[in-house]
């Protein structure tokens, strides 16, 4: 009996132990964990971004598999496909990658490929975690399975617009590559500049893979325009040709302003000899760099990357390195939570692809990831600290706390002149130091440090010049039939003359640059034209300006801006001035002779009245008739100069 009882207890212990072991290998709901999960990576291996991302991705996969707390009992396998800088090849490679039952794809690197593949990812429910595609339009609700693990160009262009506003430039020329990446970024730049009361004066687009000749032709064209502020938003693999061509054309000298987006910092962060060439051709350029704060995670990662470099891998640490490394961990954490929630990794056939008959493309190999929407949900709920900083997403699927370093290239390197973040704007303090202080803190009083501009000058460039072949200003001039002293038609070179014309010419002659203009008569010459119609033509940009005796009234000020009046307004009388000789009788000139006679009679009348009232009682008014007459005359005369109180 005792032996049987002991055997029963031992059997229960074995069953419990066996159940514990089974639970450790299964999910919380009894779903078995897979021994292996596959993720894909899609980028161009031999590119500036690819050389920075590839070792980081491989290292991150190795670190995930070595960490017992993440995906225990499950190996994370990596499948990489090379897009070879081709949209067509990249699309084919992406479809081949999706056909290998991957649960997530790191990439694509190209925004153009991301637009195409996102449609396939939506149907197959496979999340795309891109560490490089920065086109703002990819955040559209049209691409729910596209997750951007890098910063959107929407924020980068806001930083560029803040720099332009800081130096009070009103017009810029955008040089960009004519693909989804370039067009999306420049559209965002135009919107950001409009908020700062600035604009893009001209969009100079380059075809993808443009040669040096095409770039030089474009630069010669923009060099004849008014603006001297250039924003360069091109691909890092061919972008340096823009600056080398600009230097050969003398466009890297004093007076020019060059602002490059983060593609240039990616080039400089790459291999050493490329960086040397880059800094030599970009002296004085302002460039942006995605902000990656120094951290212990980053410091521990650098020796491993350096070890890969010594083994022959061409790599360097850049913001793309950090985002690529964090992308792997983002997928690993999401898959861990996905499996822990009792979800199984399984695939099923796509009914739409099954319905396609007679195709030799083997489209039936593209299968749908079951519960892919739940995996996407776990990805978007990520919240951990990675190499690039805090990895957490906003409601529009962008990383929180976007920030950029603002760098100025000079000498053999570059220096940080400030930072930009969507929290504080421009600042000389690091963004991570500003989240805990009020925005009105004195740490943000100085928005940017001094800049060494092209031509090795510290003086801020004006940002524009008078164009070589600029359009002449059209100045509207009313063709009056009366009061021709202000404006009138003339047979001279200008075609007009008058006081208003002279004032206008004198004003523009004071400008430090030439201004070409042509005077255009407004009216038929038979009657005075409507000045309100003339003002309306200026507001409609038919005329660039108008001159003449134009009255400033309320309705007109709502349409156009007026200069300060150069003539007195109100009712005035113009009379000729005559010189007269002064003499001792000049005091009589204020009144006429008749007026003086009337005043004399009034004085005598007053003296007579006083004599009538006073001579009976006042001895001063008595005496001989001659004395009394003298007293009356003296009293009348003295009233002009004395105030009599008594007599």
TrEMBL record:
The chain crosses the membrane at residues 593-613. Residues 1-22 form the signal peptide. Gene3D superfamilies: 1.10.287.70, 3.40.50.2300, Periplasmic binding protein-like II. One of its GO terms (molecular function) is ligand-gated monoatomic ion channel activity. Residues 474-637 form the Ionotropic glutamate receptor C-terminal domain. It is found in: Membrane. CDD domains: PBP1_GABAb_receptor_plant. It is a multi-pass membrane protein. GO terms for cellular component: membrane. It comes from the Eukaryota. Keywords: Glycoprotein, Ion channel, Ion transport, Ligand-gated ion channel, Membrane, Receptor, Signal, Transmembrane, Transmembrane helix, Transport. Pfam families: ANF_receptor, Lig_chan, Lig_chan-Glu_bd. PANTHER family: OS06G0188250 PROTEIN (PTHR34836), RECEPTOR LIGAND BINDING REGION DOMAIN-CONTAINING PROTEIN (PTHR34836:SF7). This is Ionotropic glutamate receptor C-terminal domain-containing protein.
């Amino acid at each position: 009996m005792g032996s049987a009882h002991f055997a029963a207890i031992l059997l229960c212990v074995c069953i419990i132990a066996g159940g514990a072991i089974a639970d450790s290998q299964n999910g919380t709901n009894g779903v078995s964990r897979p021994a292996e999960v596959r993720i894909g990576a899609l980028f161009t291996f031999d590119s500036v971004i690819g050389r920075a991302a590839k070792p980081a991705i491989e290292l991150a996969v190795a670190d995930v598999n070595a960490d017992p707390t993440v995906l225990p009992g499950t190996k994370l396998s990596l499948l990489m496909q090379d897009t070879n800088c081709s949209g067509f090849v990249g699309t084919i490679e992406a479809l081949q990658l999706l056909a290998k039952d991957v649960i997530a794809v790191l990439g694509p690197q190209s925004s153009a490929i991301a637009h195409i593949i996102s449609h396939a990812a939506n149907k197959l429910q496979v999340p795309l975690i891109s560490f490089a595609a920065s086109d703002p339009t990819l955040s559209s609700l049209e691409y729910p399975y596209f997750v951007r693990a890098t910063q959107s160009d929407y924020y980068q262009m806001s930083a560029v617009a803040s720099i332009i506003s800081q130096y009070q430039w009103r017009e810029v020329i955008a040089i960009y590559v004519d693909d989804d990446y370039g067009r999306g970024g420049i559209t965002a730049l135009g919107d950001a500049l409009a908020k700062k009361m600035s604009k893009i004066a001209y969009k100079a687009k380059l075809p993808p893979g443009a040669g040096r000749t095409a770039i030089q032709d474009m630069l010669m064209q923009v060099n004849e325009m008014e603006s001297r502020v250039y924003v360069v938003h091109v691909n890092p693999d061919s972008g340096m040709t823009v600056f080398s061509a600009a230097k050969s054309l003398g466009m890297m000298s004093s007076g020019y302003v060059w602002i490059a987006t983060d593609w240039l910092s990616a080039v400089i962060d790459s291999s050493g000899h490329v960086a040397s060439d880059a800094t030599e051709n970009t002296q004085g350029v302002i460039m942006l760099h995605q902000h990656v704060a120094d951290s212990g995670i980053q410091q521990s990662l650098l020796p491993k990357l350096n070890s890969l470099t010594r083994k022959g891998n061409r790599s360097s640490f850049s913001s793309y390195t950090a985002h690529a490394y964090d992308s792997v961990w983002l997928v690993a954490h999401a898959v861990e939570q996905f499996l822990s929630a009792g979800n199984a990794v399984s695939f099923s056939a796509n009914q739409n692809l099954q319905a396609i008959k007679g195709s030799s493309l083997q489209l039936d190999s593209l299968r749908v990831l079951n519960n892919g929407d739940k995996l996407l949900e776990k990805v978007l709920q990520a919240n951990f600290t990675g190499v690039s900083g805090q990895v957490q997403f906003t409601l529009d699927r962008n990383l929180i706390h976007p920030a950029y370093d603002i760098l100025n290239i000079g000498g053999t390197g570059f220096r940080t002149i400030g930072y930009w973040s969507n929290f504080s704007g421009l600042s000389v303090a690091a963004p991570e130091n500003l989240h805990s202080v009020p925005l009105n803190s004195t740490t943000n009083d100085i928005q940017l440090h001094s800049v060494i501009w092209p031509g090795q000058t510290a003086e801020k460039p004006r940002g524009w010049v008078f164009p070589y072949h600029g359009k002449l200003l059209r100045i509207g001039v009313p063709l009056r039939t009366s009061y021709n002293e202000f404006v009138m038609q003339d047979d001279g070179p200008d075609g007009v003359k008058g006081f208003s014309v002279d004032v206008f010419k004198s004003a523009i002659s004071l400008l430090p640059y030439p201004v070409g203009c042509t005077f255009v008569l407004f009216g038929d010459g038979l009657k005075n034209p409507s000045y309100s119609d003339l003002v309306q033509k200026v507001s409609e940009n038919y005329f660039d300006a108008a001159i003449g005796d134009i009255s400033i009234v309320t309705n007109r000020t709502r349409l156009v801006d007026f200069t300060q009046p150069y003539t007195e307004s109100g009712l005035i009388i113009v009379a000729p001035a005559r010189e007269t000789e002064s003499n001792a009788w000049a005091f009589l000139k204020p009144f006429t002779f008749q007026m003086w006679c009337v005043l004399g009679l009034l004085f005598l009348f007053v003296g007579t009245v006083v004599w009538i009232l006073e001579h009976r009682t006042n001895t001063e008014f008595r005496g001989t008739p001659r004395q009394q007459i003298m007293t009356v005359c003296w009293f009348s005369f003295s009233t002009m100069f004395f105030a009599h109180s008594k007599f």
